[in-house]
Amino acid sequence: MRTDVDHIVRLEDYLPSDFLIDRVELDVRLHPTATKVTATLSMRPNPAGRSDVPLILDGDEVNLKGIALDERALEAGEFEASPQSLTISQPPQHPFKLTIETEINPTANTKLMGLYRSSGNYCTQCEAEGFRRITYFLDRPDVLAVYTTRIEADREEAPVLLGNGNPVESGIIEGTGRHYAVWHDPFPKPSYLFALVGGRLGKIAKPFTTMNGREVEIAVYVEPGKEDRAGYALDALERSMIWDERVFGREYDLDVFNIVAVSDFNMGAMENKGLNIFNDKYVLASPETATDTDYANIEAIIAHEYFHNWSGNRVTCRDWFQLCLKEGLTVFRDQEFSSDERSRPVHRIAEVKTLRSRQFLEDASPLSHPVRPNQYREINNFYTATVYEKGAEIVRMLKTIIGDADFRRGMDLYYDRCDGTAATVEDFLKAFADVTGLDLSHFARWYAQSGTPRVEVRGHYDGTTQTYRLDFKQQTPPTPGQPTKEPMVIPVVLGLVTQDGQRMEAKCERVNSRGVFLLDKTEDSITFTGVSSRPVPSVFRDFSAPVKVSLDLTNEELIVLLRHDADAFNRWQAAQTLAMRTLAARSTGVPVSEDAMASLSSAFKGFLEEAALRDPAFAALVLSLPSDADIAQEIGQDVDPDAIHHARKELRGHLGKNCFEKLADFYHSLAPAKTYSPDAASAGRRSLRNAALDLLAAADPQAGEKLASKQFETATNMTDRLAALSVLMTIPGSLRESAIASFEERYRDEPLVLDKWFSLQAAIPEDTTVERVQRLMEHPAFSMNNPNRVRSLIGSFAMLNQVQFNRKDGAGYAFLASIVLRADELNPQLASRLLTAFSSWKMMESTRRNHARIALQSIAQKPSLSRDVGDIVNRSLE
Ligand code: 0A1
Ligand code: ZN
User: Which residue puts its alpha carbon closest to atom 5 of ligand 1?
Assistant: First the structure.
């Protein structure tokens, strides 16, 4: 094992930088294998730093070609350079200029960090520590500088040259076939927000006038010929800009805002100042190639990156431990945007589904960590569901506790105070403490304590005194490094419902006017008065805190909530709890009575008859039962994925049979509109119709196969075609195989569409899937170098196919381990993300657990692991 796997960075060791960089002048001469970079850094000692210390700049695989201090070339002995660092042992004690020339090879850069090539175009990715792969630098987020970038390139190879900030100058270099462009970004920024792009790109653009009348050009650059698929992204950008002005009073601040789509990208997108770079999957969309989910994701990610302009760029992070400061807040902001643009309750349910399936899973695994971690080996491994999604839940809880008006005042104060600085979580909380006068120090525990709290709620009705008491108990299980836990501040939004579904007007002084009770002790009780009959409690409305709730409601009481609760989230939750009770019992061999099954299906049937068409998107969510992985998490130990899969299939069949007529009715009455529109209402109708198709096929595979084949062939949009194909995937046979072949034929030149095809096949829960995936790795469209392809095929197998990844003979684990090792040689970030599929291994029954341990050990034993993979594999085994 490499020794730097053991290098740990700790929050408590934070020290301000000893040197500052005020201005950066970069001259980048693009060349496929020998790009030359000249960086002129205007530096000075930091008054807040230590004096008489060497200047140590970060580097990563850079090749030093020259170095000068105040224009005097340094001689050997005055500095020391390695590919990882550049040290000047006796730097000046006054402001100075350091000029550094480096050479890098973008074509050989398969890590996709720093400057690299994607489909021949040049692009960069600098978060978190990629800028040091371009030049030596103080590559840390609290060193803010004003950048001027001159980019030079061959005119044929890279007719478009883009940088951060505003365009200043461009021209041709006569007689060389080359040209250049100069960009200037007046806003001081950390190096992780640096970007440049050079390539052959098509463009769509429109003017935007900000709330104070500034004229901005907003544009999206894509592969030439794909401009007609960029319109939705541009529209989403415009809507995001208007929303941030209206809801948060935040205005855009440069003359241009550019988005560039590239096909090789490690993550979703990146918020570089004025020059967002996107994975093309989150930009390109047409009805024929993108699903409703793709459209919703594009809208959310465009908004997310745009919102970072304030939450992340204008106010950035002091150090990487504060990552949630920008990410949690920006996820919260993009969720609010999507909720406003679409259906709020439907969006909230989708957010919670993701939180539970990804973050709760992570928090119950060996990789559990606080929202603000206090140590890391490799920061790239902390772009996690915990930092992002749980980070957003903390912001949401804060808003729930203090109310909308104070939340907005606190946000304004935070921006006013911290604009142009690198801030901390403490700065953020202080703004809210100052506007409300509240002490938020106990609340701040959400950032420091990992693990998902469990809250037990028990109700006691006393008819003689007409009172109703709710007893709350909270407890957080131990997590790595945190054996004992303190109680959290948990906002519980709640209400009471009568047994016949009416809202109950009972009084309780511990519940504020917005329906919030704050649980901040290990145990607490609240009492309602004036309660004339035994109520049904509706707690954690709108999922008011990221906790696991145990409630002693009967199935009948859950049905009351499903039918009548004023809170849509809890109506959906009631259906999930009902289904989960049956699924968890069936999966663990606990018998479920005929009566219980009958009452479950009559509840679903009743819901379909009464309510489904009022909100089809909501109905589709009610019909989508907890996934195999959700059920595994609920069971928590000695999990048998085969039993779970069987139980789920059986319940889908049962519900499908019992609701057959109603589902068939929906399927036929919700026939597709003539022209496709990605709006939420149209998408909702499609999702209910496709959920109906899925249950019909579960009830009657032959009839389902027929319907799905027909839909597959006649569909006029990708949502319906893919939904049909995914139903066919559950029914082995020749129709399935011919649909797979025809899809491949139709979309052979559409890599993003073939990704869907890879993914569906990788998720087939049959014993031949490992071989199928291995075969697909030989497909001409597949490449180990492209993260989207690898995630679609291998990632889907490991994350979506519970049955085959967790095969009892260990073949799924061994396969993933071999791919992780291969990927690690090309792209460590991609490899370590794939490896997180093992996060549920300790939950499995012993045979699988042993196989998983052996597979993980086979990775850990490899001598030259990247720090990324080394970190994840070691923590997974601890
Ligand atoms: N800040 C980006 C996420 C991001 C992080 C790292 C990256 O490269 C390794 C790329 C993007 C966001 O939150 O969208
Ligand atoms: Zn982000």
Answer: 127
Q: Please state, in angstroms and rounded to a whole number, the distance separating the CA atoms of residues 429 and 425.
A: 6
Enumerate the β-bridge partners of residue 26. Answer: 39, 149
Name the residue at shortest CA distance from atom 3 of ligand 1: 270
3-state DSSP of 590-636: CCCCHHHHHHHHHHHHHHHHHCHHHCHHHHHHHHCCCCHHHHHHHHC
| Atom 4, ligand 1: residue with shortest CA distance | 270
DSSP letter for 47, please. T
Instruction: Supply 348's token pair.
Output: 């909230």
Best residue among 262, 266, 383, 827 to mutate for probing ligand 1's pocket (most ligand atoms within 8 Å of CB) is 383
Indicate which residue's Cα is closest to atom 6 of ligand 1. 127
Please report which residue ranges of 342-495 form alpha helices under DSSP H.
344-354, 361-363, 385, 391-402, 404-418, 425-436, 445-448
pLDDT confidence tier of residue 4, bands split at 50, 70 and 90: low
Atom of ligand 1 nearest to the CA of 829: 9
Q: How far apart are CA 739 and CA 745, in angstroms?
A: 10
Residue 589, token pair as written in the block: 């061999």
Would you say 806 and 812 are in contact if contact means Cβ atoms under 8 Å apart? yes
Which is the closest atom of ligand 1 to the Cα of 327? 13
- Give yes or no for a contact between 271 and 309, defined as CB atoms under 8 angstroms apart: yes
CA of 103 to the centre of ligand 1 (A): 25
Alpha helices in 458-540 (DSSP H): none
Give the Cα separation of 269 and 758 in Å (integer): 22
Q: What's the chain's average pLDDT? A: 98
- Nearest by Cα to 670 from 713, 718, 619: 619
DSSP codes joined into one string, 650-705: HHHHHHHHHTHHHHHHHHHHTPPPSS---SHHHHHHHHHHHHHHHHHHHH-HHHHH
User: Burial letters for 806-839: b for 16+ Cβ neighbours within 10 Å, e otherwise?
Assistant: bbeebbbbbbbbebbbebbebbbbbbbbbbbbbb
Three-state SS for 321?
helix
User: How much distance in Å is there from the Cα of 324 to the middle of ligand 1?
Assistant: 12
Ramachandran class of 201: left when φ > 0, alpha when ψ lies in -120 to 50, beta otherwise: beta
Residues 720-747: tens digit of each pLDDT? 999 999 999 999 999 999 999 999 999 9
pTM: 0.99
What pLDDT digit, counting tens, does each position of 133-145 carry?
999 999 999 999 9
Which protein residue's CA is at the shortest distance from atom 11 of ligand 1? Answer: 270
ipTM (interface predicted TM): 0.99
CA distance 319 to 86: 21
Please give the positions annotated as active site.
305
Q: What is the 244 CA–ligand 1 centroid distance (Å)?
A: 21
Q: Indicate the pairing of strand 315-317 with strand 269-270.
A: unpaired
Q: What is the DSSP letter of 128?
A: T
Selection from 519, 501, 502, 521 nearest residue 510 by Cα: 519
What pLDDT, on a 0 to 100 scale, did the predictor assign at position 611?
A: 87
543: left (phi over 0), alpha (psi -120 to 50) or beta: left
3-class DSSP assignment, residue 62: coil
Residue labelled with tokens 């606990």: 590
In angstroms, the CA 446 to CA 425 distance is 11
Half-sphere exposure of 321 (CA within 13 A, CB side): 19
Q: CA distances (Å), 453 to each of 129, 626, 864, in order?
A: 33, 21, 38
Question: CA 227: distance to chain centroid?
Answer: 26
Percent of the chain with pLDDT over 90: 99
What's the gap in Å between 469 CA and the centre of ligand 2?
42
Ligand 1 atom with minimal separation from the 388 CA: 13
Other C-beta atoms closer than 10 Å to the C-beta of 246 total: 11
Give ligand 1 pocket residues (Cβ under 6 A). 125, 127, 266-271, 304-305, 327, 380, 383, 829
